[in-house]
Amino acid sequence: MRLRSIALAAGLALCAGAGAAQDETPSLTHDFGDWNVACDNVRGCTAVGFAADAEGGAGPHLFLARGGGVYDQPRVEIGIGFGSASEAVMDGDAIEVAVDGARPLRFTAVARRGRESYDWPELVFPAERTAAFVEAVIQGERITLTHKGKPLGAISLKGSSAALRWIDAEQKRDGGRSALVAVGPRPAKADPAPPDPPTVRRAPPISQSGSPRTMPPALAGREDVRLCAEEYDEESRRPPTAWRLSKTEYLWHIPCGSGAYNFNALFLIARRDGTGARSAGVGGPSDPDYLTNGSYDPKTRLLSAFSKGRGLGDCGDDSAWAWDGRSFRRTHQAVMESCMGVTIEHWHVIWRARVL
């Protein structure tokens, strides 16, 4: 199930290459067969292999992450997915993992549950097995998972070699000994180092006492605010919220339309009386003032948004920005365009910054 929501498209449309300039969003994800890959602005890359013949996005998936550092090694995890089969998997259960293909491999991994907001089981992957497992995946056809003699599903390996070869190229490892697929004679120490992440310095915290609770006429009269209000009926309309950003400016959160699990809102920066309004600059290029499920925390000076592709929350866009005293600057963005039961911990991070 491929996500193509307006909110996600808007949030990603400015994406450029993995070596993008500061505060630009790096490249979108790329498909290779049943695999999806992406890299961030510091050449950290991730690959996700999806379930073979899964119905409703309920099957398992494979997650591979590798940092952009010269000596960074791949990290592999397997998400078992959700559904009746995975519900029977308990913490510490043994899961038989079999890779079929040119280099068959079988081993036992340990399940864990309850990381962060999800209770879907994942496999704790033995580190000493990673290199052999990745080699088998590159030449394999599918991964099958078995729990107490019962099948948990299968992961397709169609496109895995091309996906990991793409990562080799993006991380500038191709032609070197550190590559996963495009291996060559160049020593790992000769691989080019990745760029440093941009640094975002947050503005000092400021008291929120006395922040306005009603929208001033200067804001209420704006065309975009009027259109926003029209998307709510009178009974379900939510009041606006204002947070103090500086001595003179406030961040206004003005609720707009809502769905079953997504709530859209305008985010504008203006004075207490609503004059001098300007865009918060955190939405997509077509709607720079709108965010989905957006919220601001004045203690951390972080603005966040989580656009769900579906109610399960296994696809969409997860982003954050920090207030530096003049503007909001992106600090994080993770995306998953395919609604296939992938936990947010396994989404592709395509932008990261050092936050001070």
Question: What tags apply to this protein structure?
Answer:
single chain, 356 residues, mainly beta, Immunoglobulin-like, five-stranded antiparallel beta sheet, 6 helices, 12% helix
Contiguous runs where pLDDT drops below 50 for at least 5 residues: 2-27
Could you say what the CATH topology of the largest domain is called?
Immunoglobulin-like
Q: Give the overall average pLDDT.
A: 86
Shape, per Cα inertia axes: elongated
Please give the radius of gyration in angstroms: 23 Å
The total number of structural domains is 2
**CATH architecture label of the largest domain:** Sandwich
* Strand and helix order: HEEEEEHEEEHEEHEHHEEEEEEEEEEE
- The total of beta strands comes to 22
Structure description:
The chain is mostly beta strands. It folds into 2 domains: 165 residues, Immunoglobulin-like; 157 residues, no CATH class. The chain contains 6 helices and 22 strands. The strands form 4 sheets. The protein has a 10-stranded antiparallel beta sheet with strand order 1-2-3-4-5-8-7-6-9-10, covered by helices on one side. Strands 12, 13, 14, 15 and 16 form a 5-stranded antiparallel beta sheet that branches. The two termini are 38 Å apart. The relative contact order is 0.18.
Report a brief summary of the structure:
12% of the residues lie in helices and 34% in strands. The protein contains six helices and 22 strands. The chain starts with 5 loop residues before the first helix and ends with a strand.
Topology of helices and strands:
Elements: H1 6-12, E1 30-32, E2 35-39, E3 45-49, E4 61-66, E5 75-79, H2 84-87, E6 94-101, E7 105-112, E8 122-124, H3 130-139, E9 140-147, E10 150-156, H4 160-170, E11 199-200, H5 217-220, H6 223-230, E12 241-244, E13 250-258, E14 263-270, E15 278-279, E16 290-292, E17 295-297, E18 302-308, E19 316-323, E20 328-336, E21 348-352, E22 354-355
Parallel strand pairs: 11-22
Antiparallel strand pairs: 1-2, 2-3, 3-4, 4-5, 5-8, 6-7, 6-9, 7-8, 9-10, 12-13, 13-14, 14-15, 14-16, 17-18, 18-19, 19-20, 20-21
